[in-house]
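Researcher: Next entry: Putative methyltransferase C9orf114 (Glycine soja).
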Amino acid sequence: MAKKNKKQTRDAEVEPELNTKNGENDDSHNKKKLKKKRMRKKIPTVSIAVPASIIDNVPTLELATRLAGQIARAATIFRINEVVVFDNKSNPDNDSVLDNVGDESGAAFLMRILQYLETPQYLRKALFPMHNSLRFVGLLPPLDAPHHLRKHEWFPYREGVTVKERDSNSGATLVDVGLVKNVIVDQIFEPGRRVTVAMGTDRNLDSDLPRQVISSSKPREEGTYWGYQVRYAHNISAVFKDCAYKRGYDFIIGTSEHGQIIKSSDLEIPSFRHLLIAFGGLAGLEESIEEDDNLKGKKAQDAFNLYLNTCPHQGSRTIRTEEAIFISLQYFQEPISRAFQC
Ligand SMILES: C[S@@+](CC[C@H](N)C(=O)[O-])C[C@H]1O[C@@H](n2cnc3c(N)ncnc32)[C@H](O)[C@@H]1O
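Model: Predicted structure:
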């Protein structure tokens, strides 16, 4: 899929560990860090899990591209922080989904389109080599997310791609952040790596003032939606188990027409750090759970903290996954914000 030296996706937002350096000042150093960490506002994350099989059931590349585009739009509209694409495999085949060449699996395809659309337009040429799967992406409406900045726009943060070391032994790297000139950051990075740059207050691009590479979670912690991460899971239990957040998901919701019916205004979600909302494929989450050896004997209702029907009284016999994502994310908006009012 991707060339190995290019880093198309951002590093997962892992919660930082405290430094445990040796020496006399460690204690006060760690105390300060602890205090700072406690003071830092805990911004919750919302993840969605989407089955790769929805792509396998689409007859043409163009329709598959449009479907992937709808999921990317839904994720962005509802400020989703992570999209997990899952298969129904009982055995992991060493994550080869990421390295497929030529005709690729539904999962590889869906991840590629999601990642491509999430990437600011000015970085795509550098980060995404030409690929047959990208043939129809030009037809898709853009995500127009806050980090998809235009050349004339100034924002405290910008996504960029590292270009090259400024000059030998300078200890600095040039980064293309989509402005008329590359900026300098005071660290060495290999070329072709996606980074988030704190732009500082100096708008003069001719000045040599180095800027900082920061965690991609920083803008989000300050309240700006900064796109989503994309992760692969070989089955539904790996969605839960291989969570990229250090402490895992603390509340997991499954969606189904067989789920419990609760009015959105009555739904109570406990305050959470990392929420996951899972969607099923043609045969629903029930099938994903039945086919998963790690969940043998479990009923769908038991695999989730809540198993919900978010669209009761449906007029069509089936609600498609991509439709259910929009319907459900709208349904969850108020309960999620209520979870943080108390
Ligand atoms: C084609 S449906 C699968 C139909 C299946 N009978 C089911 O479990 O809902 C695909 C996915 O859309 C979502 N979905 C469909 N109808 C829903 C509903 N009324 N409430 C919540 N989610 C629904 C679920 O995630 C489901 O797995």
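Model: Note for the record: Residues 157-215 form a domain with the OB fold (Dihydrolipoamide Acetyltransferase, E2P) fold (CATH 2.40.50.140).
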